[in-house]
Amino acid sequence: MKRFLLTLVALAGLATASAQLTPNKIVVPDIEGYKTLKGDFHIHTVFTDATVWPVTRVHEAIWEGLDVIAITEHIDTRHQKYVNSGVFVKEKCDRDYSYELAKKAAGKKLLVVHGGEISRGMPPGHWNCLFVKDNDDLCAETEKNDHDHVLAMEGGLKEARNQGAFIMWNHPNWCKQAPNETKMWKEHKKFLKDGYMDAIEIYNMACGYSPEAHEWCLEHNLAMLGNSDCHAPFFMEVDYLHGAHRPVTLVFATEKSLEGVREALDARRSAVFAEGNVYGREQELRPLLEACLKVNSVQFKAKEVVIEFENVSSIPVTLTKGAGSEDTWYARYVVIPPFTTYTYKARPLLDGDKQPAFDKAITEYSVNFVAENFYIGAGKPLSFSVKATR
Ligand SMILES: [Zn+2]
Ligand SMILES: [Zn+2]
Predict the structure, then answer these.
(1) Which domains does the chain have, with CATH numbers?
(2) Of the bound ligands, which one is closest to the alpha carbon of residue 74?
(3) pTM to 2 decimals?
(4) Which numbered ligand comes closest to the C-alpha of 120?
(5) Rounded distance from Cα 116 to ligand 2 centre (Å)
(6) Residue 54 CA, ligand 2 centroid: distance in Å
């Protein structure tokens, strides 16, 4: 038994060491009751207007430690241009072919969601349909009203619903379609009311974070997704050499399977990790922060409370002093990078030259923090306390 435990400890050590030695892999721990899956639900390939083969997308995702991707080609005329020009053989290359190539290449190493992007002018803009069955049918429905962006989209979304798809409004903050402000048009409100909006892409690699979309997801109980929308090879878009990652959607699933991903998205259990920040809901972000930033030890001494944190994730954590700790002094701004530890010493406020001790009658003491880069709403970071007892 002892040997078994030692092996386990050694293996755990190896896992941490390998995460540090392969910084390209995104490491995010599971939370209580759920597996934390890392996903990118918006990816293009050479079959529409991107520059890489679908198999490369699979290799890039595995290399970065992802669990799930969606291939989401523009299902509109861009595909047809390649077919018409003879680059692709018409009989073989329907609008689902890139997904099939990716799926085959992924095997059991990566989950691949069958998706498609309907791309129209604003409103209604671009929408991803995930878990579709046949993109050609989606396209046919949009083309019935090709002259009208909203009617074309409605036809496509209706067909997506018939196929049992999960539907997301993409990049509402794209500067080309939202040059001066990010707003929900009346057309979006109607789609939302009619049940065509399950999620919004609150982070897109080309457009960045949309605080408006974050708030809309909270207000209307929609899933929050953060994706790459990558068209170039990833190494050209993401500065891996300096520790950057693509934006990912964190999916809190009961199991690592396509069914598990779908169930979690339907239940709105998702968050976004992008550019060192995490965006989501408090109910997921609080346990996520606890899983990423472990409290290794808390000591309540006569003159100080000593807290050792360990960041076991790829997410850097920025901590500031929280409200309610004004009678204590400790570091007011600390960044705890991935896979590092940091020790706080919180002491009663100085009384002249004398270092005071905590009142002996106090047996419990809370030190308060704000995780500045864990956003549970637009501009709303997550607060937490660490309790010391003696
Ligand atoms: Zn788009
Ligand atoms: Zn796209």
Answers:
(1) 22-280 (3.20.20.140), 292-389 (2.60.40.3090)
(2) 2
(3) 0.93
(4) 1
(5) 9
(6) 14
Tokens of 50: 């991107």
Query: Could you tell me which residue, 236 or 88, shows the higher pLDDT?
Result: 236
Ligand nearest to the CA of 124: 1
* Ligand 1 ion local residues (Cβ < 5 A): 126, 170
Share of the chain above pLDDT 90, in %: 86
Interval 246-297: pLDDT, tens = 999 999 999 999 999 999 999 999 999 999 999 999 999 999 999 999 999 9
Placement of tokens 């002094």 in the chain: 329
Question: pLDDT of 287-319, one tens digit each?
Answer: 999 999 999 999 999 999 999 999 999 999 999
pLDDT band at 350 (very low <50, low <70, confident <90, very high): confident
Q: Which one-letter amino acid corresponds to residue 322?
A: G
- The closest ligand to the CA of 73 turns out to be 2
